[in-house]
Amino acid sequence: MLAVHFGAGNIGRGFIGNLLYHSGYETVFVDVNAEIVNLLNEKNEYKVVLAEPGQQEDVIKNVRAINSAENPEKVVQAIAEADLVTTAIGPNIIPFIAGLVAEGLRKRAAQSDKPLNIIACENMIGGSSLLKEKVYEKLTEAEIAQFEGQFGFPDSAVDRIVPNQTNEDKLMVKVEPFYEWVVEETKIVGEKPEIQGITYVKDLVPYIERKLFTVNTGHALAAYFGYYYGEEFINKAMENPQIRELVEGALNESGEFLVKKYGFNAGDHAKYIQKILQRFSNSHIVDEVTRVGRSPIRKLGPNDRLVSPARQYSEVVGKEPVNLLKGVAAALLYDFQGDEEAIKVQTTIEENGVEKAIETFTGITAESPLFNTIIEQYKQLK
Ligand SMILES: NC(=O)c1ccc[n+]([C@@H]2O[C@H](COP(=O)([O-])OP(=O)(O)OC[C@H]3O[C@@H](n4cnc5c(N)ncnc54)[C@H](O)[C@@H]3O)[C@@H](O)[C@H]2O)c1
Ligand SMILES: O=P(O)(O)OC[C@@H](O)[C@@H](O)[C@H](O)[C@H](O)CO
Which residues does UniProt assign to the signal peptide (predicted)? Predict the structure, then answer.
């Protein structure tokens, strides 16, 4: 069985590639990083090491790679032959691979009616749906009609903390032991891919909201407050009682609306939160606050991990969130010069004021009661 996976980065090698290998797939990674592509083709294997006492090591074999910037035609051919396509490239990159995916599907559809599932494994709501939308923008109406039955774009939620890697072995990836991959069953075409570690569900929305608004919400607060208090790493930030309190407070707020909205068991959700706090504190993982805080414009977006739970908490619970809005304010203060989006947020604030920045990046307008609280929190932190 052949899997084509876009993005041979942290989650691509450390999580998806790992599970695909153990499920019997040959994996072709598609990436634009020439060094990683060349190393994968030279070694055809890499190590995944668990960040825990004992540091258990796993060798992932049966892998190769294509540089999509140099050999797009090889990517098209691989998609035409594949049994599964997955991505882990980052939400902002999805539109840029849509052309290649469309070409691959076009070539495949011309020679066979074999179904194919394309699963985006990104931290966002509706990642595969977005890819489908961008692919369909490249097609004719006749192609769309043909593709509808043959190709599936099930959405998914993926969870495993994989920090940036600094190993001498450039292919090796250190990952946390925990993982979860949930896939929307109803949009699968053909047979369900038998992948060890996938949980298929009928409705993905509760799972992706629970993951994004717990793991990633807490992580974002740890990152932005970690940065604010001068911490370099997430586990160190979690040792600061003020930051831990803010993170836990935000997770209790998002938890309150998630439990109410989806009917999760409150006790189980409280355990889920505690497990996540432990994962953030894992001393075997060196995870920079600047990785976790990367792309603050994306993270401040109306449907993302800070603003969406804040808005939904006020709608579903009927109260104003405190910690979640402090998280929004801390994200607005994030001025890391190595992050283009952080620079853009700061420039917008300097040139047009924080009010304009809130409206532009979060979609929250002055009519919302949340607006003034964010400004107050921002001014207090500043
Ligand atoms: N690292 C984690 O802990 C984690 C966990 C769950 C989900 N995710 C999600 O997985 C996705 C990837 O994150 P990551 O941490 O692995 O990032 P990463 O930067 O380590 O990997 C992304 C890879 O995509 C490649 N890439 C960029 N443009 C490309 C293109 N046009 N075509 C093909 N490849 C391209 C990059 O070269 C890189 O190797 C993101 O959506 C992230 O939110 C990450
Ligand atoms: O990947 P991002 O930028 O959306 O978010 C940064 C981290 O919160 C994220 O990568 C987590 O490590 C991951 O989502 C854990 O499952």
Answer: none
What would the pLDDT profile of 310-348 be if each residue is shown by its tens digit?
999 999 999 999 999 999 999 999 999 999 999 999 999
Strand order in the sheet with 180-184: 156-159, 180-184, 198-201
Give the mutation target among 93, 123, 181, 215 for probing the ligand 2 site: most ligand atoms within 8 A of CB: 123
Q: What domains does the chain contain, in order, with CATH numbers?
A: 2-201 (3.40.50.720), 206-381 (1.10.1040.10)
Is 301 a known ligand-binding residue? no
Give the C-alpha distances (Å, rounded to integers) separating 218 from 161, 211, 306: 13, 10, 9
DSSP 212: I
Q: Give pLDDT tens digits for 6-50.
A: 999 999 999 999 999 999 999 999 999 999 999 999 999 999 999
Angle between helices 217-228 and 323-332 (to 10 degrees): 50
Q: Mean pLDDT over residues 356-363, rounded?
A: 98
Q: Tell whether residue 10 is among the known ligand binding residues.
A: yes
State in Å: Cα 351 to ligand 1 middle: 32
Of 292, 298, 303, 334, the residue with max ligand 2 atoms within 8 A of its CB, to mutate for a pocket test, comes to 292
Mean pLDDT, range 167-180, rounded to an integer: 97
**Nearest bound ligand to the CA of residue 304:** 2
Are residues 90 and 56 in contact, defined by beta-carbon separation less than 8 angstroms? no
The question of ipTM being above 0.90 is answered as yes
Phi, psi of 64 (to 5 degrees): -145, 180
